[in-house]
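Memo to structure team: turn this sequence into structure tokens by end of day. - J.P.
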Amino acid sequence: MGRNVPDWVLYIIAGVGILLIITGAVVLGAVWWRWRVRRYVIRLVGWCEGTQSAYRGLEEVATRLAGATDAELIEFASDSTHLDRKALVEIATQQAIADEELETVALPKRLWAIGANLAAAARAVSREASRVGEDAGPDAVLEGMGRIDLGSAALAVTGAAQALHGVCEELGVEDRAVYGGGLYI
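Reply from structure team:
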């Protein structure tokens, strides 16, 4: 009962088997990496939505105060518990946290620039919202409101959102799939 198959055939079968295993591992690794990058993109979309929402809140407060009467401005400036002052403090605090998280999160190299853009946008919104101090006096509050630069914050937020949108399109991640589709982060 000898072997009827030459040794070289066994070597070829073994080589093809090893090649299939290596190819499968490479394909599986590529699929896993793409899934992982998509998960990070979804997290970045969440941060971006938070920063855009914070900017809209900042803009709403600034717009409301721009059309306020003198009495309303005096109330805003003199009352540290005024709803709009609390909103500005909350926006500044939350965006400072988002900035710090975005600066320290371990992103794939492909997403470093997007993370840096989002951190800069969060920093810009936080900086502008914090111009009105929580414990500042009435004159300092009004002066701080006058120094809020919505344009620079809008530019940072829009630029970060556009860069992220490009990556989302490239990877097939739709914003509405993250929020409008029912998946909330």
